[in-house]
Amino acid sequence: MRRTSLAGHALLLIASLSIGSSAVAQQADRAGVTAVLSAYKSAVEHLDVTGVDRLFVPDAVVVESGKVEGNFTAYRDHHLGPELKEFKSFTFGDYKVDIRLEGPIAVATETYTYRIVLKSDEAVERLGVATSVLRWDGQTWRIISTHSSSRKPKQPAS
Fold first, then answer.
1. How far apart are CA 133 and CA 10, in angstroms?
2. Cβ atoms of 50 and 61 closer than 8 Å
3. Local structure of residue 71 (DSSP, 8 states)
4. pLDDT tens track for 105-136
């Protein structure tokens, strides 16, 4: 009887260690995904996306507000890069991210506001949302697809 009890306790201990280490691994994975998304967001806020292509797989798909932009290099060279040159500042606010892990795949949904000040001093304010799919390549998380959209915030009723 005692052997069964000891074996049962050992199995419970092993199971709890497995669950505990799985939870720790998931926290580390979430932190890694968050770090990739934060690096991208920070680069946009600094109006400089130099080196950001390392956050994306070469054939990543970028979709913005109803248009497939191609891979990140095409998006950077033909859309984002030229836009950033016209901005005085770009700031995110009310940023929230929800990350769902599915093995080596992470799905992140980001919600935020943003404010752009153009070089002409015109300000643009928007509500934004993005969904990014990232894949673990054995060393780091990299974006394989991202889709963002935005809209004008509703004006308060007068």
1. 39
2. no
3. S
4. 999 999 999 999 999 999 999 999 999 999 99
Write the DSSP assignment of 78-144 as a string of letters: IIIHHHHTTEEEEEEEEEEEEEEEETTEEEEEEEEEEEEEETTS-EEEEEEEEEEEEEE-SS-EEEE
For residues 24 and 131, the answer to whether their CB atoms sit within 8 Å is: no
- What are the boundaries of each domain within the chain? 2-151
pTM of structure: 0.81
Nearest Cα neighbor of 59 from 151, 145, 148 is 145
Separation between Cα atoms, residue 29 and residue 36, nearest integer Å: 11
Q: Kindly report the CATH number that applies to the domain delimited by 2-151.
A: 3.10.450.50
